[in-house]
Amino acid sequence: MNLSFFDQFSSPSLLGIPLILIAVLFPALLLPSPNNRWITGRLSVLQLWLINLITKQLMIPLDKKGHKWALILTSLMLFLLLTNLLGLLPYTFTPTTQLSMNLALAFPLWLATLLTGLRNQPSISLGHLLPEGTPTPLIPALILIETTSLLIRPLALGVRLTANLTAGHLLIQLISTATTVLFSTMPTISFLTLMILFLLTLLEVAVAMIQAYVFVLLLSLYLQENI
Question: Is there a domain that residue 2 lies in?
């Protein structure tokens, strides 16, 4: 029984061929396709409004130098948002529940922000490792602590996204299993668990959107420190 709860997080395959690439590329089908006209319908208006809103929110903390990152940050936000939401549909696979994939997204982007700071303003970037006014005996310890906190940033990004989505999916499966089991013996309790399941699903939709936003927002804040 314990293994069946975690089967939903295993990468799907068909005839021994992994299907995770299809799961990763599928959200791109929901994005607007190139057309001769800017607006082709109500759906395109909604998509353009959402993209404009996301870009505006992500670019608020950044100055003009950081606006060059608008395309990659907005694309990452849309990718994570669509992937997380599609993973809540029945009989689907959520690639963002895989720690390896989240680390593969977090580490290169975090490293890019770090290298940007070291190239453009090395003294200021290195100065973040030692707060101003630190007592001399505490300097080695603080440098070690700040360096450690800097290096675990991509790990924290990946683990946060993975843990939140995994916990939500497990809770949904546990409560749905309880609803099915109790339906024949205790219908009233089963109805109550069904209501809890409905509310939990709404919560998970919110969590899926919030976690995508937090992931990209933290990257933009890391970028702000280095430009």
Answer: no
> Considering the domain boundaries, does residue 27 fall inside one?
yes
Residue found under tokens 């082709």: 40
> What's this model's pTM, rounded to 2 decimal places?
0.81
Q: Which amino acid is at 146?
A: E
Residue 184 domain flag:
yes
Contact 73, 58 (CB under 8 A): yes
Q: What is the pLDDT of residue 215?
A: 93
pLDDT value for 1:
44
Distance CA(117)–CA(105), nearest Å, equals 19
In total, how many domains does the chain have?
1
pLDDT attached to residue 190:
86
**Whole-angstrom distance, CA of residue 54 vs CA of residue 74:** 7
Can you list the residues of the chain whose pLDDT is less than 70? 1-24, 26-40
As beta bridge partners, residue 92 has none
Give the E-state strand segments of the chain in sequence order. Answer: 13-14, 17-18
Cα separation, 56 vs 70, in Å, equals: 9
Question: What pLDDT, on a 0 to 100 scale, did the predictor assign at position 216?
Answer: 92
